[in-house]
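pasting for ref. prot 1 ->
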Amino acid sequence: MEQKSSPGPTPSWVPARGHALRHTGIHFDTVRIAGLPGERVASELMRFTDFRAGPIVRSGTGERSVYFLLPPHSAAVYRWPAGARLMGRDARCDAFVGVPALDGRTWPLEWRSRPTAETPFVDAGLLHELATLTLEGA
């Protein structure tokens, strides 16, 4: 698979085509923010990181949630603001997140920001800070 937009090897949890459900807390933790607030947090994170934020997945159905993929076991360290939901084994629940392939048809999922060799995950501390500022209006 040619990886023009994702230098380095593709993470093992990214499917070759379509999309696949992945168990959170194993390959990554996830923070979900629904709707426009999720888009605002993603935009702030993208701007702050010069568009190298790490893996952010957007859903095109339902609440149109945005999923931020963090290093495994990193999200439970933080107290997430209202509107941001931790999804992972550290949250004492089993959760699955859809992950799209890097190319091809992946609807209803799409990458808002892709994993790269340099940024294989979203920085948990930075996401927490930006989510808190954006969602609590501080």
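and prot 2 ->
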Amino acid sequence: MSDGPGAGPDRVDDGAAEQPTVRILADLHEIVDDSRIPAGARWTLAEAGRQLDANLVHLPAGQRVATHTEPDLDVMLVVVAGSGAVGAPDDPQFVANGNLVWLPRGSTRTVTAGENGLSYLTVHRRRPGLQIKARSGP
């Protein structure tokens, strides 16, 4: 026995929240070739409600990201153009277009662009926003 049209599990509820949809966010090749931002983040994932952070970063020839340690997050780095070196200052790994690099949390790393520059995408779990908390103690 049917309750009539629109009464089953496929019924659309006009008051329901919008369902997330799959969509193309950017063409990385176009962004890499766009020189309006000569260095730094050329694209950043900024979708509301996301669980990931992602950035497309470009470093001109010879520039580098200073040595640092990421204590909390694993980072996936995908080289989308150029070449360079990634890793600990005393053990850099050569990287080139198409390489996929894992930067485990707690690792010390630096990123240095080669002679033709380096463009790479980083992806990691989203950091929680800053929160104001009550001071503990007297």
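The radius of gyration is 21 Å.
The helical segments are 28-33.
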